[in-house]
Structures are given as C-alpha cells and as structure tokens.
Amino acid sequence: MTRRRPQLAALAIVSWLLGLAGSAGGHVVHARPTLLSLVTGSDLVAHVRVLDPHASVALEATGGRRPIVRVELREVIKGAGEPGRELRFASHGHGVAEYVAGDEALVFLLPLARSRELAVLQEAGLRWVSNQEHDSRYVLTPESRAGVLAAARGYAAAGRLPERQARVERLRGVTLALLTSGDARLGASAVRDLVAAGDLPLVTQADVPRLLAEVVHSENASIGVRIGLLAELERRQLVDAAPVWQALLRSTNRPDLLQVVRAAGRHPSPEVNATLVEMLGREDAVAEASALALGDPAHADSVPALAKALQSDQPRVRMAAIRSLGLIATPAAKDALEAAAGTHEDSATRRRAAAEVRNQTRRP
Fold first, then answer.
1. Across residues 244-250, what is the average pLDDT?
2. Does any domain span residue 121?
3. Which residues span the domain enclosing 57?
4. Is the CB of residue 43 less than 8 Å from the CB of residue 109?
5. Is residue 185 assigned to a domain?
6. Average pLDDT, rounded, for the chain
7. Looking at the predicted structure, is the pLDDT value of residue 163 above 90?
8. Which residues contact 364 (CB under 8 A, 6 or more apart)?
9. Which of residues 64, 99, 130 is at a domain's end?
10. Cα-Cα end-to-end distance for the chain
11. H, E, C per residue of the chain
12. Average pLDDT in the 49-71 region?
C-alpha cells in the first residue's frame, strides 16, 4: 500500500471533496495528515473501544503470526458496520499508531484488499488495515471526544452532500468549530486545510470578527494556530493584517513572542517594521530574533536601526544585524557593513561584516 505525502494529499482531498479539482491555489504546508484528509481518505471511519492492541493472527502460508488490533465498534461515522460488534484490523508501515486496552479512539481504515503486501492476511479473515501512523493517532479523551467526533461527523456528512454549495457550507461550519475550539491539534488541522484549500471560501469576511476575537487575539489559543490563521486571513485579503501583527508583537509574552517576531517579519509593513526596530533595544533573545526578522528588502527602512545594533553589547544581536543588512543589500546597508568591517572594536564582528561585504560583491 502506498501512502500519499500528507502535504499533497491535503490539497487533492479538499479539491475532490468539493468537486473543484484544479481550482485550489494556496501554498500547501508540510505537516501531518489533517482530520479532513483522514476522513475523506478512508473507507471506514469509526469510534471504537480498544479490546486488545496486541492481538495476532496465524498465517498459514508462512507459519508465522501477524500483529493486529481488536476493537469494539461504538459508532460508524463513515462506511458500514454495526455498533457493538468486534472489528479487527492490521497496521502497516513504520511508526504505526499504538493503543492500550480500554482506549477510546477514532480509527481510519482502508480495505486490506488494496495492499499487495498484506493480501495474505485476508486468508485469516481480516478485511481492514489502518490508515494511521503515530502522529495521526486520535485517542479520545473526555476533553477531546466531543470536538473530534463532531468534526469527523461533519466531514463525513459533507462528502455525502450532492450540491457543491452545501458541501462548502458544511465544511465552513466544521472549520470554524475547530478553529474556535481551543484545541491546539484541531485548530492546527483546520489551519492546514485552509491553506491547502486555496481560495475556497472555508472562511468568509463575515467570520473574521469572531476569528480575530476568539482565536488570533485569544491567549487560550495556541500561538501556532493564532499566527497561522492570521497569515492565512491576510493571504485571503480578508483582514488588514498589519495592525494585527503589530498588536501581537506588543501583547504576546515570551516564549510565544519569539514565534510572533519570526512570523511578523515575513509580513512586512510600516507598523511591523517600527515595532521590530523597537525590539532591537531589548536585552534578551527577542532582540536577536527581531534583528533576524528584519532581514528582508521590504524592511529597508530599518537599515539605520540595524547599523546601530552593530554596537550592541550582545554578540548574537550584532551577528543577526550583519546577516539582515546583507539580505537587505541596499547601498546604505552595504555602507553600514563596510564601516563595521573597517572600524568595529570587536574582531569577530569585523570579520563577519567583511565576509558579508564579500558575499554582496559576488552576488549578481
């Protein structure tokens, strides 16, 4: 059985589900499979209770045994099955999902007949193989059960709807629920699907006030979801993002602030530039991160501040400023580097600045 690379599968599955193959145009992120991709890419999706995670079946052809998992069906979300009945499935690949007896889990299964490698297991009466690896295991806790199951039901229901607009609206509802759930894993899954979906309206202008209030500006949401969602809302041109990035830079506390600084630097604006320049004066790792974040030609206005940062007492800040001046590469940036290379009191700073000047000279 061949596993599709998650970053490609996400886009293909969203396009297939909506009947819009070829229309999605967003940047596809490299990440674990999303909940949507698992639901739409599986033939059987079920809420189960694990009976024996270390069972096995005998193989007559080889005389050996093959590990399998025995579960009790609690709810069949997609596919066919009877709640209360036992189901057995094989796992395949490296780093497969593992369980302990008594776990409640959401499992995603494919027909065993699709796998040439595991076809021999059909002789033992097995029909299913897991579509999950360790990073896509969904063990249901009291805190996560309701949200995960509701999302899986919503995705499965969307796939059964005949009309395109109805599918879009169902997916939009699930996406909003996951983004505002406060669950970091579900929120990240929804953000990755948004990115993979290109310009499909899984969020709309009407959703922006709620998303800003309950996610981007919420300290209860994970910082990865907050900045990932803001970046996607900006890409979709649904929000004036510059003041929002600035607000995050001013309000976020460490250690999350370092992630915000790095992300904001990739979304240049006068507001972001001014705030990052202010942070160059800090006496901690934020100053270094800010100096690195300014390393883009779009931050050319920061050259005087970066030149001043070459006099910082923090060696790492000086080295970050040199790197960013080299990336900005304007005549003023080159002048600052040449001055540091010739007169800076620290020999390591002089050498690094001189090396960056040489690099600029070699560039076309």
1. 97
2. yes
3. 42-130
4. yes
5. no
6. 88
7. yes
8. none
9. 130
10. 48
11. CCCCCHHHHHHHHHHHHHCCCCCCCCCCCCCCCCHHHHHHCCCEEEEEEEEEEEEEEECCCCCCEEEEEEEEEEEEEECCCCCCCEEEEECCCCCECCCCCCCEEEEEEEEHHHCCCCHHHHHHCCCEEECCEHHHCEECCCCCHHHHHHHHHHHHHHHHCCCHHHHHHHHHHHHHHHHCCCCHHHHHHHHHHHHHCCCCCCCCHHHHHHHHHHHHCCCCCCHHHHHHHHHHHHHCCCCCHHHHHHHHHHHCCCCHHHHHHHHHHCCCCHHHHHHHHHHCCCCCHHHHHHHHHCCCHHHHHHHHHHHHHCCCCCHHHHHHHHHHHHHHCCHHHHHHHHHHHHHCCCHHHHHHHHHHHHHHHHCC
12. 83
Domain end call among 130, 146, 174: 130
**Residue 180 forms part of a structural domain:** no
Give the angle 79-106-222 at the CA atoms, nearest 5°: 130
Instruction: Say how far apart CA 22 and CA 29 lie, in whole Å.
Output: 17
- 89 confidence band (pLDDT: 50, 70, 90): very high
Model pTM? Answer: 0.87
Q: Is residue 310 part of a domain?
A: yes
51-60, 77-86, 88-97, 208-217: which range is least confident on average? 88-97
**Within its chain, how far is the Cα of 217 from the centroid?**
19
The percent of residues in the chain predicted with pLDDT above 70, rounded, is: 87
Say how far residue 40 (Cα) sits from the centre of its chain: 18
Q: How many domains does the chain have?
A: 2
